[in-house]
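Human: Respectfully, please carefully check these tokens:
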Amino acid sequence: LLYTIKFEATRIGMKLNLYVVRHGQTHANAKNVLQGHEDSPLTALGVQCSANTGEALQDVTFNEIFCSDLGRAKDTLQQIGCKSPTKFDRRLRERDYGPWTGKLWSEYH
């Protein structure tokens, strides 16, 4: 399951729809590992959920897409199938867990 959130704002006759989509499940997610800025490939479930998200958004026209520069985000975007202009930005990465990166969530909490 990917999280897709739609925000709507109307101001002075202009309408803005903002969609936020989380990357698909990765191997690190499946193992409850903190990945932070490290990358982990999508699992088969992550690929399927990304494709399902693409089907759900197929009738939406995007003016522009902003995406993390990490592979898991790029792979999710590819599976979704959007062809709109995309800007990849490292500022959209998951937080950096520093020395906790690669450790289990249970060790972090």
Notes: The two ends are 24 Å apart (CA to CA). DSSP finds four helices and four strands in the chain. Residues 62 and 83 are 9 Å apart (CA to CA).
